[in-house]
Specification:
Layout: H1 7-14, E1 20-25, H2 31-45, E2 51-56, E3 65-68, E4 72-75, H3 76-98, E5 104-107, H4 114-122, E6 127-131, E7 137-143, H5 147-150, E8 156-160, H6 168-179, E9 187-191, H7 200-205, E10 220-223, E11 229-233, H8 235-240, E12 245-246, E13 253-254, H9 256-261, H10 266-272, H11 287-296, E14 302-305, E15 320-326, E16 338-346, E17 349-358, H12 363-374, E18 389-393, H13 398-408, E19 414-417, E20 422-425, E21 428-431, H14 432-445, E22 449-450, H15 455-461, E23 464-467, E24 470-473, H16 483-496
Parallel strand pairs: 1-9, 1-11, 2-7, 2-8, 8-9, 14-17, 15-18, 17-22, 18-19
Antiparallel strand pairs: 3-4, 5-6, 6-7, 10-11, 12-13, 15-16, 16-17, 20-21, 23-24
């Protein structure tokens, strides 16, 4: 039996101590077959009561067409048939070795034609049993990955083609309590890097920064940046293990390099065969940029929920400081939280010293949070720190923001920002939402913004997407809405804005060159925005 299995296939089969891991294998690298073999080995290990739930993404596609990135278009039925055949082959291979162990494998698809066997698989009625005796057996069942039913799953769960499951995060959330209830339960997933880096499987399997892999018939184990154990087998590893790849035209065996040269979409080949993680999708910021920003902010920045992080003022130095505040005072259950950011500029780098999120239905609590943030302590020279500017988002809470500005008068220069209003930048008119979003993204791309290390922050920043040249904020099931992104960009605006506190100077009424020219109109263009402002002539 062992001769039928490639060297890299034995790696996950023999890895018995790991509670969960991901098979990041090239396309057609026998992922489905190996998961089926792993399921049977798990069932054979201990007599009785063992249940393996095999969740296949192929069963979610219905009657739609699936485009396999590269050069092949296959129907949902063809894909289901292929996966069903892979499972059937795995069953047959393992069945041969069971007699020696005095066990018996039977399925409700035995003696059926390939088409009928695939039909059972597609209808989620396929089941396999390993009989340890005449009365004791373990089972494997085939189902579609559905979060609504995942709460009732038990035993081991194997998820095939995880990158094709749109609601993978919900699925894993539903399964987590089950996986934590028994030390013998296991979670295995398989797939290739998705083409949208916003998909959870992208983050779950992203290799450590700077990781390099040389061809190895056994593949490579690594721990991803998300902390998940991953077994990686790319086209070169599979070739070293003697898994052939064929020319799409001549059907002759070819090397990975020759196969890539014939690919109609080389970017897709790099993902599906080279397992290259390429930035893509609609998220405004890539995971690589966020990882760099959080590495830069390690030990320099703090994130907190509901209350201020202890000792956050100790992180401040002697640089210029601005505060961004995105208030949310609605009482809806799924209302987005308020977010506050204190950003300090040190040289050319901007440090988000504090990012705070909180939910409240009490406007007074929001005002108290901002007043607390304005108490910045003293700099290394003993001087009281003052925020250069406080920028408040007034798009949805204009009345509240206006009252807050009046309350802070004399304590801080306060600017109200309405995302939908227009501003001219570089000779081009755009909304403040587009301008400020671009401001933050540009600092990230230049490696000049440091952020706190926080999963919440990473997920919230990733809710901001690019939309027709601008930015849009997606809403997640927790009510988050890219609010921390907005707070940080407002603070950056407070540091970049050229306008500042007003300064009064004596102006001579006459000089050697004569009297200054007479001007009429608004002395300060911002006065027109203040209710009750007085127009003066000079």
């Amino acid at each position: 039996m062992k001769s039928l299995i490639l060297p890299y296939e034995w790696e996950p089969i023999d890895r018995k101590e790991a509670g969960r891991f991901f098979l990041l294998w090239r396309r057609q690298g026998r992922k489905t077959t190996t998961l089926a073999k792993k399921a049977l080995h798990f069932m054979m290990k201990k007599p009785g009561g063992r249940l393996v739930t095999f969740a296949s993404a192929s069963l979610l596609v219905g009657s739609e067409l699936i485009v396999r990135e590269g050069q092949v278009i296959e129907s949902a039925r063809e894909r289901v048939t292929r996966d069903a055949q892979a499972i059937r082959t795995a069953f047959e291979n393992v069945r041969k070795g069971m007699k020696k162990k005095k066990m018996k494998l039977e399925t409700n698809g035995d003696d059926l034609s390939p088409d009928d066997f695939a039909g059972l698989f597609e209808q989620q009625k396929l089941e396999a049993r390993v009989w340890h005796s005449q009365t004791v057996c373990s089972r494997t069942r085939i189902i579609a990955p559905n979060p609504a039913t995942a709460r009732s799953w038990s035993g081991c769960v194997f998820v095939d083609e995880a990158g094709h499951i749109a609601n993978l995060a919900d699925l894993l959330e539903a399964m987590e309590p089950i996986m934590s209830s028994d030390p013998e339960f296991r979670l295995l997933m398989a797939g290739t890097p998705p083409n949208d880096e916003a998909h959870l499987s992208y983050e779950l399997t992203l290799p450590p920064e700077g990781a390099a892999f040389s061809p190895d018939p056994k593949g490579h184990w690594y721990t991803s940046q998300a902390g998940l154990l991953v077994h990686r087998v790319d086209a070169w590893d599979a070739a070293a293990a003697k898994l052939p790849t064929y020319d799409p035209d001549t059907r002759e065996k070819v090397t990975p390099e020759q196969h890539r040269a014939k690919a109609l979409d080389r970017n897709a080949w790099d993902r599906n065969y080279g397992l290259v993680f390429k930035p893509g999708g609609t998220a405004a910021l890539s995971l690589a940029l966020l990882h760099h920003a959080m590495t830069l902010g390690r030990g320099q920045c703090a994130f907190a929920e509901d209350d201020f992080a202890p000792g956050w003022r100790d992180l401040l130095g002697g640089g210029r400081i601005a505060i961004g505040f995105d208030p949310a005072t609605t009482e809806k259950k799924m209302s987005n939280p308020s977010a506050l950011a204190v950003v300090e500029q040190v040289g050319t780098v901007f440090y988000a010293r504090l990012v705070l999120v909180f939910k409240t239905s009490d406007p007074a609590a929001s005002r108290a949070m901002l007043r607390e943030a304005l108490d910045l302590g003293h700099d290394p020279h003993g001087q009281a720190r003052r925020a250069r500017r406080v920028c408040i988002d007034a798009t949805n809470e204009r009345f509240f923001a206006s009252g807050l500005k009046q309350e802070l008068a004399g304590r801080a220069v306060c600017e109200l920002v309405v995302s939908s209003e227009k501003t001219a930048r570089g000779g081009e008119e755009m909304s403040f939402k587009t301008w400020l979003g671009s401001l933050l993204v540009h600092q990230m791309e230049d490696g000049l913004l440091a952020l706190p290390e926080s999963r919440y922050l990473k997920e919230d920043f990733r809710l901001v997407t690019r939309d027709r040249g601008g930015f849009d904020n997606q809403l997640d099931k927790q009510g988050r809405h890219g609010d921390t992104f907005d707070a940080v960009k407002l603070a950056l605006h407070g540091l970049f804005s050229h306008s500042g506190p007003a300064h009064a100077e004596a102006v001579p009424l006459s000089s050697a060159t004569g009297s200054p020219p007479r001007r009429t109109g608004w002395k300060n263009p911002f006065l027109r925005q203040i209710e009750g402002g007085v127009k003066i002539n000079v």
